[in-house]
Write a structure and sequence with these properties.
Blueprint: H1 3-20, H2 24-28, E1 31-38, E2 44-46, H3 48-60, E3 67-79, E4 82-95, E5 98-104, E6 107-112, E7 118-124, H4 137-143
Parallel strand pairs: 1-7
Antiparallel strand pairs: 1-2, 3-4, 4-5, 4-6, 6-7
């Protein structure tokens, strides 16, 4: 493992630890000041101030006491100073006293800044939907929300 791989794994570890401690400041410390974040429900946030604010809010409310497990699935270096990190995430939280679990795949674009620090520039979180049983192509076409005319045979 290279030094760069280790630095990226450390970012993910710090994100997990910050989440599990409910620490929005430590969570946001892993992001560049002008970072962009799209959370699991699709809302967009720009800049570390907004990212910290939304995480402080959720750590104090809906995700208070939640537990996040983050596992790096793959790292891809696009350039020596830019990498994409694919993560598998499991979030355990409680709603009205009942345990809830969310599986997601966050994708991070991480940049090495001029000071030599790796910071998250883009964070996109995508919920994993329940896998469907494979169906014949014609039934998938009929069930697809954007039904179009089939090309003529």
């Amino acid at each position: 493992m290279t030094e760069e791989h280790g630095a990226l794994l450390e970012i993910v570890s710090k994100l997990e630890q910050a989440w599990n401690n409910g620490d929005s400041v430590a969570w946001t410390a892993q992001f560049a000041g002008d970072a962009d974040l799209i959370h699991i429900l699709g809302q967009f946030f720009h800049g570390s101030r907004d990212i910290e604010h939304v995480h402080r809010t959720i750590f104090d409310t809906i995700y208070k006491g939640s537990h996040h497990r983050l596992q790096v699935e793959k790292m891809r270096f696009l350039q020596p100073h830019v990498a994409v990190v694919f993560i598998r995430a499991n979030l355990r939280w409680y709603l009205n006293g009942k345990e809830q679990n969310i599986e997601a795949r966050p994708t991070l674009v991480v940049e090495k800044n001029p000071a030599g620090e790796w910071k998250i520039a883009v964070f996109q979180n995508t919920m994993i939907s329940t896998p469907a049983v494979p169906k014949p192509a014609d039934t998938l076409t009929q069930a697809h929300p954007f039904k179009g005319d089939s090309p003529a045979s």
